[in-house]
Amino acid sequence: MSEITDDNYKLTIKSELPAELPLKFFEAMLDDLKLLLSRIEFAHTGDQPQASWKVETDGIYVAASVNGLQGEQLKEILWDAYAGFQVNEYGQEEDWPKSYDEDAKQVVKRIANRVKKSRPMIVQVIEREPLRITPTAPIKREKHEKYRAWSSIEGTLDVISVHGRPFFVLYEHGSTSRVRCTFPDDWTEKIVKLLGKRVIAEGLVYYKHSGEPERLSNPTSIDPVPEPSSEISALRGAVRGMTGDLSTYDYVQRLREKDKID
Amino acid sequence: MIKEYWDTNLFISYLNDKPEEKDKVDIIETFIRKAEKASSNILIVVSTIVLCELQPRDTYNQLHYQELRELFYTARHFIKVQALTPRIADEVSKLRTEHKGLALTDAIHMVTASLEDCSVLYTFNGDSNRRRPTDMLSFDGVSIIEGKPPLNVKIPEMPLGSQLRLT
User: Fold this and answer.
1) Residue A211 and residue B96: Cβ atoms within 8 Å?
2) CA A13, CA A28: separation in Å to the nearest integer?
3) What is the pLDDT of residues A84-133, one digit of tens each?
4) Are A106 and B133 within 8 A, CB to CB?
5) A136 chain-B contacts, CB cut-off 8 A
6) CA A21 – CA B11 distance, rounded (Å)
């Protein structure tokens, strides 16, 4: 078995900037790169991957080491790896090399996404122009960013206060959120009757940055949530014929495929 | 509390109950029976998008309307319907830019599951030989929101030792 030590047989991802890369970033990238190259080799040869990819710490690169492959085969593997990054950056779905299965594509996307959250990088392989992966500009978010929308909150109504501006607290169903809801004076009687019940309140909902609801103002309605009339298992087959002659898989695919942007 | 996110196709399978999908429907029923026990600590989370997708192919009639209300708009302790909040919308927009070809609804399901800290997202999306890179199952193990753990996307499987009376 010949050993190829020629530095030509390597894939390099290097930073355009001289700054050092964090170790965690470096390790995750290398693992993914090795995985990618092994999958491509398997697709080419149909055998268990033989090439081993040695890791160099000078930048991020993997280079062919002990292997049972010819130089030309190694080149093709590297070119396919390079092509994957190229397609991910600039291409269309149909442009992926044939040696890419879904897992290999995911690996490329994962590497590229890491890069995009980091700094400009260059991918290099033998006989190909350096390929630049451009980072996504970081989004500058407000320090205490909040969202609001006209929406509804469902939960158990607890703690009514009529001191000052009346409000009650809703313990949101299925979360630990306590949502303070203001209400008009003339709702007091209705609100008291709903104390301890599961209700749904509509109004202008303010959310924390995490997405949790924090408070509701300008309520437009509040109603008790009715008790179910049967166990859910009674609903098996309750709406037969929903998908016509299509399987569930095909039906949902059809519903969703029109909303894609390539 | 263990949160499970359920994709629309589980509900369609269940409500439709096609004979050729009996195995899947049996699994869903097992999951439902487990969750609906009073002592259960399982919460099934769904997005309001599920309600949009529960769309009959031919006729939207009174029966369809009533059954969906019974399913999602009654006080069931083990179901949470999560609205599409501005934060979810924001993350969906970002995710679809990063993953071209990802369907809008798939992105909403995945972002909702992630933000709700669901331990698993159950789907049949990608459950075939025609699996595509943008099917939800392809996102198993992928972190889609900064600061959140990777998604755990699975096809529901019959739990070991489960017995369901088959009729």
Assistant:
1) no
2) 13
3) 999 988 888 788 999 998 888 888 888 887 777 667 788 888 888 989 88
4) yes
5) 98
6) 46
Q: What one-letter code names the amino acid at A221?
A: S
Cβ burial B12-36 (10 Å sphere, 16+ → b, else e): bbbbbbbeebeebbbbbbbbbeebb
pTM attached to this predicted model: 0.71
Instruction: Identify the closest residue of chain B to A112 by CA–CA distance.
Output: B98
Q: Do B33 and A233 touch (CB under 8 A)?
A: yes
From chain A residues 31-60, the ones with a CB under 8 A of any chain B CB are none
Of A139, A209, A236, the CB nearest to B14: A236
The one-letter amino acid code at B155 reads I
Calculate the alpha carbon distances from A210 to A207, B108, B117, B119, B141 in Å: 8, 16, 11, 17, 22
Look up residue B44 and give its DSSP letter. Answer: E
CA A88, chain centre distance (Å): 16
Contact A147 B86 (CB under 8 A): yes
**A33-47, A160-174, B22-36: lowest mean pLDDT where?**
A33-47
| % chain A with pLDDT above 90 | 33
- The answer to whether A262 contacts chain B (CB < 8 Å) is yes
- Can you tell me the ipTM of this complex? 0.85
**Cβ neighbours of residue B30 under 8 Å, at least 6 residues apart?**
B158, B159, B162, B164
Average pLDDT over residues A34-53: 84
Q: In B, which residues are within 8 Å of A249 by CB distance?
A: 9, 124-125, 127-128
Q: What is the pLDDT of residues A84-96, one digit of tens each?
A: 999 988 888 788 9
Rounded Cα distance between B44 and B82, Å, is 10
Other beta carbons less than 10 A from residue A57's beta carbon: 8
pLDDT at residue A12, as a whole number: 82
A231/B contact by beta carbon, under 8 A: yes
List pLDDT tens digits, range B88-138: 999 999 888 887 778 899 999 999 999 999 999 999 876 656 556 667 887
Q: What is the DSSP string of A47-83?
A: S-----EEEETTTEEEEE-B-SS-HHHHHHHHHHHHH
- Considering only CA atoms, which of B103, B104, B99, B100 is closest in space to residue B144? B99
